[in-house]
Amino acid sequence: MSVPQHVFDLLAPLHKPNTTFTRSGDRISSSTSSQEYLYKTERAGRAATQLVGEAQSLKAMNEACAEIAPRLVGRGQHDGEEWMLSEWHQLSSIPKSEQARLGEMLAQMHLASTPEGQRFGFPVPTCCGATEQDNTPEESWGEFFGKRRIGDMCERIGDKELSRLGSEVQTRVIPHLLGKLDVKASILHGDLWSGNARFSKDRSSPIIFDPSSYYGHSEADLGITRMFGGFSPAFYEAYHARVPKTEPVDEYEQRLQLYEAYHHLNHTLMFGGSYKSGAKGLLGGLLRWADDRGL
């Protein structure tokens, strides 16, 4: 397959003169460098939306922490297709010795300055798995997470029991847990399960990819890290050494349960099955916690 001219125009200045480029599927190699590139195209529909969201996510993450994700080289439209060009990385599992480094890098990304006046949300839709997320901006973090995450997801699933639990959590739990937080809008990865975190052999460092970013509370990125495992205590210790747990610290566990519940709801929407019981368990547990406090 030939390398499109608009891709060549982006790559040529990054390499030695007279470098040639070859394409095999969505992978592009150069004749003078070991660095390879990923070239994606989508013509229309949710796949095109997902591609644009991924590109914008990488751009925001690159700006916050240059080493944490593949570098976005460029994106645009050509002949009616959306396209994206980013670095290709040779990946392996993250060694235990590198878990702390990943925590440090994630903290750096979350602590980075954001655009002035940035609200909670994102300029374009992003897709968490197959789910297009509602990133409509909100001034309040509690309002955003309640309406654009928990509420929106329960509405899409259409299960009566989940809708009841989600509605109660929105009314009784979220205003208390999130409404009083003093947090800035940090750029999030958005889908930070262990399958999206690997060790880059090209950089000799951890890397995260396939983002579904938005601006939100930094701890929201930690919710899904507990859903499938793969992150060691060293990861959390290194992260919180730089980004302390948000006050009130004694409600940290409940906040992470709430943030994890969103991903159980999303997996319920995509796959059903056991994820539904997981979502009910987390939401129900938060309501029992609220009962114990008279909320």
From TrEMBL:
Entry EC number(s): 2.7.1.172
Root EC class: transferase
Keyword Nucleotidyltransferase: no
An example molecular function term from Gene Ontology annotations: kinase activity
Domain of life: Eukaryota
Annotated keywords: Kinase, Transferase
InterPro entries the record matches: Fructo-/Ketosamine-3-kinase (IPR016477), Kinase-like_dom_sf (IPR011009)
Catalysed reactions, as listed in the record: N(6)-D-ribulosyl-L-lysyl-[protein] + ATP = N(6)-(3-O-phospho-D-ribulosyl)-L-lysyl-[protein] + ADP + H(+)
Family membership: Belongs to the fructosamine kinase family.
Protein known as: protein-ribulosamine 3-kinase
Lineage start: Eukaryota, Fungi, Dikarya, Basidiomycota, Pucciniomycotina
